[in-house]
Amino acid sequence: MRVAIASDHAGFELKEKIKHYLLEKGVEVLDHGTHSPASVDYPDFAKKVVTSVLNGEVDYGILLCGTGIGMSISANRYKGIRAALCLFPDMARLARAHNNANVLVLPGRLVGPDLAFWIVDTFLTTPFEAGRHERRVQKIDEV
Length: 143
Fold this sequence. Notes:
By secondary structure, this protein is α/β, with parallel strands linked by helices. It has helices spanning 12-24, 42-54, 69-75, 89-99, 113-125, 132-142, and strands at 2-7, 28-31, 60-65, 83-85, 103-107.
């Protein structure tokens, strides 16, 4: 599995922890930055991850900013991206199972590493259920 990850300055510390966690689990990680806690603009980093997902370079994307809201708004501007801001594992499970989310967004200032790892694991291991959900996802992608 390949995952692209990026954050702004507010999500940098948690991004680094998630990146190392995934690497230890054998997941291939494409780190699009930021590479320090210096202030940056989150839309620039959302674009990098979204591009990797849309080009098929990776299976999923993970984005982090302080609240996750800015990254969610930025990522969801791209056709074919279904970015889900998840604060709990159940949100990640349902984002994948019902919405076929392809980008996980996490709030770097609102969740700790252990909860973030649980959310990431849930997101990456939950399959899309398709069925009645497929019709709804198609309608989203038509917008």
